Amino acid sequence: MAINKKEEKVEKKSYSAKDISVLEGLEPVRKRPGMYIGSTGPQGLHHLVWEIFDNSRDEAMAGEADKIELVLLPGNRIRVADNGRGIPVDKHPKTKVSALETIMTVLHAGGKFGDGGYQVSGGLHGVGASVVNALSVYTRAEVHKEGGIYVQEYSIGKKKADVKKIGSTDYRGTIMTFEPDIEIFKEIKFNLDTIINRIRQQAYLVKGMKVTVIDAREVDKKIDPTSTFWFKDQGVEAPSQTFYFEGGLQSMVAFFNQDQKPVHDTIFYVEKQQDGVGVEVALQYVDDIISKVNGFANTIFTPGGGTHITGFKTALTRTINNYVKANKLVPEKEGTFDGTDVLEGLTAVISVKLPEIQFEGQTKDKLGSVEARGAVETAFGEAFTAYFEENPDEARAIIKKSLLALRARKAAKAAKDSVLRKGALEGMTLPGKLADCQTKSSDEAELFIVEGDSAGGSAKMGRDRRTQAVLPLKGKILNVERARLDKMLASKEVKALVIALGTSIGDTFDLDRARYKKIIIATDADVDGSHIQTLLLTLFYRHFREIIDAGYLYLAQPPLYKIVKGKDIRYAYNDDEKHKIVKELGGEVEEVSEEGDEKEEEEEKEKKSNNKIKIQRYKGLGEMNPEELRETTLDKEKRVLKQINVNDAIEADKIFDTLMGSLVPPRKSFIQNNAKLADIDL
């Protein structure tokens, strides 16, 4: 049975102009937007959406709103409405203008600084609305408050007119509409999936908050987003999704584990106010070897962990070991569980809410608030101990799972030590199939992981021997999604790659020992090549995640076509490029066989005029000779590489689980739902 201790109700306080604190002006935002939103690329563009949405979400966290509506409108506009208290519109005592105008046009002005605004909040510490306003060509703030409708419009951070009362209303709340500035962002393209994933996550974290996302970008009829409080009341037919989770974090854990086999049926849950910190934890063990521990601070995802995660892990290990010792459930010869043993197969979400929050670094990647560690350690530790006492069968199932992990850890250590000992005995001999580069500088060195001996031979001959190393892999490597370390290291191909990388693996992994700072996966442009690519990405994501985070991992993009007209040789990486090149060259097109039959070309050479355009379709890297491979894939001046990164670790984790896990039904469902997005070469 899950433990559910409700957080005490915080007394509501007034929220008016005197609660809005002003720190500094707005001018720096347009000069250095990256300082405020991270970048002016897709990530920064979507950050604008988060800032406006987070203001509405903070109203819900304060218990003042329970409904939010986010609409993607035609013309690159976003509309966010909530039924909260409404931004204050009375005159601010310091700025002598409306508090609404102050919030929208002055940096660091917001209810998150005073005592009467928010007890807990996320966002950019109150700068969100003004930053969005500064980076938008159009912004409209509409406030329904105390029976009146108040409106003010802006352009690139400056008001068009004073705040004006335009009518009466039965609603209360705020509607914000903005259109990003194309001069700042260059390309404005909102990704619905990115927005949906973020909104779903936030709905889990704030129980009782209902959020509707409407995609009205393709609506044909003329719409007036200012005519109704809720956009859906206009009766416009547009795709929409609504998120509402009464179970909060329990629902989130259930969502993560929907395609997994649980070790115990009930999802543990505790919510408690501890030493001024709101602590909420939900967890469940599943039959898997991967752990998913996600932390949030004031609803902000902290992929780098922090003090709340440290407190959780400390309490988890101590609680399980204490219960095992008290009930004599594990023979003494097995030893005690360490942190990795009790994490195996665990899905957990830890959320803390603090009045004053400190992060390490500008990216809010890691929580630094010291008080969070003790609060989580105490609140979770006490509740989890009680859960074990009240649910002995579930406790034993969890301990059995951890015991298997302990034994596997010892076996894996023996296997890894064997590999390392063998390497030491051989003078740290690198794999025989590796053609290493001459440079000893990891900053210069590149490792090409290629598919098959044929491509490996061409790559070895076409490479720059000084800086480029080549490691050919034979066939498809082991799927490591559910493989333990000892089984992984028994695979010759995986072991060769681990030794070549130089970082070691598991608890002895050390990024500073990486032999190459560019690791390039080069596979054929066919189904088998895509499969090998996916297997390698799974290996790196699960066991070399730091290499991805450091920006060392890339995918090579070899061309699909070689296009020749006389002495003019071009390469095309997709069909659009092929058509464009053919159009530029002009002349009659002659398709050459996929194998590029040179003999046939020679026989026909004299019969055909130089006006003929010959197109060769490459199906694999092995079809390219060393010169072609060097020119298209190896040459640093001409090649095309895709850098691998993980913008949404939670979503990436779930996709790897679905695609590479052992359960067929979720994989089949994923493929059926996403098949229309695939680029299929018939």
Topology:
Layout (H helix, E strand, L loop, with lengths): L27 H4 L2 H4 L4 H20 L5 E7 L3 E6 L16 H7 L22 H7 L1 E10 L2 E8 L2 E2 L4 E5 L4 E8 L1 H4 L6 H14 L4 E6 L24 E4 L5 H8 L11 E7 L2 E9 L6 E6 L2 E2 L5 H21 L11 H5 L2 E8 L5 E2 L5 E2 L2 H21 L1 H34 L20 E6 H11 L5 E6 L11 H5 L2 H10 L16 E5 L4 H17 L1 H5 L3 E4 L4 E5 L2 E5 L2 H11 L3 E4 L5 H8 L7 E5 L8 H9 L6 E3 L5 H12 L3 H11 L8
Parallel strand pairs: 1-8, 12-14, 17-18, 17-19, 19-20, 23-24
Antiparallel strand pairs: 1-2, 2-7, 3-4, 3-7, 4-5, 4-6, 8-9, 10-11, 11-14, 12-13, 15-16, 20-25, 21-22, 21-24
Helix pairs in contact: 3-5, 3-7, 9-11, 11-12, 13-20
Would you kindly provide a written description of the structure presented here, covering whatever features stand out?
The structure is a single chain. With 682 residues, this protein is an alpha+beta fold. The chain has four domains: 17-243, Histidine kinase-like ATPase, C-terminal domain (Heat Shock Protein 90), CATH 3.30.565.10; 249-411, Ribosomal Protein S5, domain 2 (2-Layer Sandwich); 430-558 and 618-646, Rossmann fold (3-Layer(aba) Sandwich), CATH 3.40.50.670; 648-682, no CATH class. The protein has 22 helices and 25 strands. The strands form five sheets. Strands 1, 2, 3, 4, 5, 6, 7, 8 and 9 form a nine-stranded mixed sheet that branches. The protein has a five-stranded mixed sheet with strand order 10-11-14-12-13, with helices on both faces. It has a five-stranded mixed sheet with strand order 18-17-19-20-25, with helices on both faces. The chain is flat and about 75 Å long. 40% of the residues are buried.
